[in-house]
Design a protein that fits this description.
675 residues; 4-stranded antiparallel sheet; 14 helices; 35 strands; disordered N terminus
């Protein structure tokens, strides 16, 4: 296989890029189609211009962002320039899929479209022309409606940050892998800016009084310098929560009720649990005295002081009994800010503006941030395009319903994984393969928070980003269902087997799917759409193996190629003297993950589906007693299905017997293995 051949396999499923009043659909070859909720994919219309179909993001050097239905018929298609990210086009598309007219949008028209359709077209983290708070502290840093950084001055007016005389844009920094952590006044005028890069390094640079960034002042701080800067600024610059909780530190907490709660929970050397942290945040909410009241400087700074000492103050062990760092992580995001705080979804099909926390935030904002990070209530938009390996797939939506089941019964097992109607086979094949070869690794994936005051259990779920850094989200026991009376989830099913092999209900697999959608909002997976939505995680490859279990995956081609801009998906050249088959066989027999991408179709003698195009599978060793066999069993994440007296004619067979020799020689089948 050549590396270029793999391009068509990069998205094992086609996927919807946007689902609103219309569906913008990206086919496996990257071309655009447009459709409506309830239609089959085959009924979508390829988008055409002057009769030319096959349009994609590079055809005119404009990327398709979203599509909406016009009341008078047809659609509106929104496009963003690849060369100039600030330029947007609104195109009118008729019912046949043909672009009839188009215009470049003014800034005001971009704002109006975002507000009307609830879509963040320009990616600044807000809808319309609202200023978005990036970081709050001694100086509040905002992003304006077109994505430029603005410093809020003491008189509440705004001053732009500039670089080389040009506005400093979010697009410039984010593309470079940088995130501003804090801005503080500099003695003598100007500001000191602290930035964290993709590897977690803290950088410092200054600005002039005008807001012009002084590039020559840039320096990377070592750990001693970071600690000194944190002590000087009072900010947790590295996000590690590693400020020491020295004796008497609580005297710095200015809100009496918060100070009392913290001292009560940490008395006699005790540490703060999840339930305790919820109490502290609830105390902060109550201190505001009303939903629409501002929390104020004292409450805000008290929460920041607690977050800065999270490593010393908190305890939360994973299922293996090891300290997880979960509480430090989620409180840091709640208090010190996160890209995910831009919006609140809450399980609805349209998101609403939220914001990072500041002294000017209302108690309602703090409550929503608690819902997001501690209570698992910021559930994903339930819209999906569906499992596109099924030709009858249609877009779907739903509502959320609580499921009363164990997290795990008898240990995670591959056959616990049963795909519903969401196009997440790549994720489910990944976790099924991990469950087969390393079920114990899921002990570090979850922390259990128990049942909260509202009667709902929650869990922390861990993921790894493309650099191997750890991230956490919180999920509750609610899953999307098509109808309120449904007894099983619409997407990954609440199914499994217990220690005795008997069918039971387990939540671990559907919770990972749901948590993956929530974590996607952090923009840590390298996906095209960093949104808390089920449709935004449809379609993918073996990167999910790494996102869940860490490490890397590879496939063997004729050249080394990095996909999605990161090393977790990197092809390898077959070692001299070996073959791809030999390398896959070695991985199989050494207990490695074997992830299968199929762009081929095959059936058994009775007509039941084995391989299906645009779908991901996992393979495992059919003869563990042999160290050299090539025989495998292939599991389809649709679930277990076999010919029995009760089901003599199943639509598909899973697991089915095969051989690496056969599969490696099948056109359209490729493998990714754990390394």
């Amino acid at each position: 296989m050549s590396a270029s051949d793999l391009n068509r396999d990069l998205s094992a499923e086609a996927h919807a890029r946007h689902i609103g009043t219309a569906i913008l659909y990206i086919n496996t070859d990257g071309t655009w189609s447009i459709g409506k909720m309830g239609q089959k994919i085959s009924e979508y219309k390829p988008i055409k211009f002057n009769g030319q179909a096959g349009l994609h993001d590079d055809t005119f050097e404009f990327t398709a962002i979203s599509a909406e239905a016009r009341t008078e018929g047809g659609y509106l298609l929104y496009l963003r320039s690849n060369a100039n990210p600030g330029q947007f086009v609104e195109a009118v598309v008729d019912d046949s899929g043909s672009i009839t007219t188009g215009k470049i949008l003014t800034t005001e028209e971009i704002y109006a479209a975002e507000t009307k359709w609830k879509v963040d077209l320009n990616g600044n983290g807000g809808l319309g022309n609202e200023m978005v708070l990036v970081d709050a502290g001694k100086v509040n840093l905002f992003i304006d409606g077109v994505g430029n950084y603005q410093i809020q001055q003491t008189d509440k007016s705004f001053k732009p940050l500039t670089f080389g005389g040009q506005n400093l844009s979010q697009d410039l920094l984010v593309k470079g892998g940088f995130e501003i952590e804090s801005v503080v006044p500099k003695q003598g005028g100007g500001y000191q800016i602290y930035v964290r890069d993709a590897d977690g390094n803290v950088l410092e640079l200054g600005t002039e009084s005008s807001g012009e960034v002084q590039a020559q002042t840039l320096q990377v701080l070592n750990s001693t310098q970071v600690a000194a800067a944190e002590a000087t600024t009072g900010e947790d610059l590295n996000g590690k929560g590693d400020t020491a909780a020295a004796a008497g530190w609580t005297s710095t907490l200015k809100t009496a009720a918060i100070r009392t709660e913290v001292e009560t929970q940490t008395a006699n050397g005790n540490k703060i649990t999840h339930a305790g942290l919820v109490k502290i945040v609830n105390t902060a909410i109550q201190a505001a005295g009303g939903t629409n009241n501002k929390i104020g400087e004292d409450v805000f700074n008290d929460l920041k002081a607690i977050a800065a000492r999270g490593k010393d103050l908190f305890t939360h062990k994973d299922l293996s009994g090891n300290e997880s760092g979960y509480l430090s992580y989620v409180l840091d995001k709640l208090v010190n800010g996160s890209k995910a705080n831009s919006f609140y979804t809450g399980g609805a099909t349209q998101k609403q503006n939220l914001d990072n926390l500041s002294a000017d935030s209302t108690a309602d904002t703090l409550q929503k941030l608690e819902n997001k990070w501690l209570l698992g209530l910021d559930m994903p938009n339930p819209n999906t395009q569906g499992d596109t390996a099924n030709p009858n797939a249609t877009a779907a939506s739903g509502t959320y319903k609580a499921f009363d089941a164990e997290l795990v019964a008898g240990g995670p097992a591959a056959f616990d994984v049963n795909q519903g109607s969401a196009g997440t086979c790549y994720l489910l094949a990944s976790i099924a393969s991990i469950a087969k070869v390393s079920p114990e690794s899921f002990n570090g994936t979850f922390v259990s928070n128990g049942t909260g005051a509202n009667g709902a259990p929650t869990w922390g779920v861990r993921f790894f980003d493309t650099k191997g850094n750890v991230h956490w989200v919180t999920v509750n026991n609610q899953l999307a269902v098509r109808n309120p009376d449904d007894t099983d989830a619409a997407y990954t099913k609440v199914k499994g087997v217990d220690a005795q092999g008997q069918p039971t209900k387990e939540l671990w697999a559907p919770l990972i799917e749901k948590a993956y959608a929530q974590a996607n909002e952090l923009d840590i997976f390298g996906r095209q759409k960093a949104e808390n939505a089920m449709f935004a995680i449809e379609g993918g490859l073996a990167e999910a193996v790494v996102n869940v279990a860490g490490g890397k995956v590879t496939t063997f081609t004729d050249s080394v190629t990095v996909y999605n801009g990161n090393d977790i998906l990197k092809t390898s050249v077959v070692p001299e003297g070996s073959t791809a088959l030999a390398e896959y066989t070695k991985a199989l027999n050494s207990g490695k993950v074997v992830f299968v991408v199929s762009m081929a179709n095959s059936k058994d003698d009775g007509g039941a589906t084995l391989l299906t195009s645009g779908h991901a599978f996992m393979a495992f060793d059919a003869d563990p007693n042999s160290s050299t066999n090539t025989t495998v069993k292939v599991y389809n994440p649709w679930g277990v299905s076999a010919r029995t007296e009760a089901t003599p004619n199943p639509s598909f067979i899973s697991t089915f017997d095969s051989d690496l020799v056969t599969l490696v020689g099948t056109e359209g089948v490729s493998f990714w293995i754990g390394v």
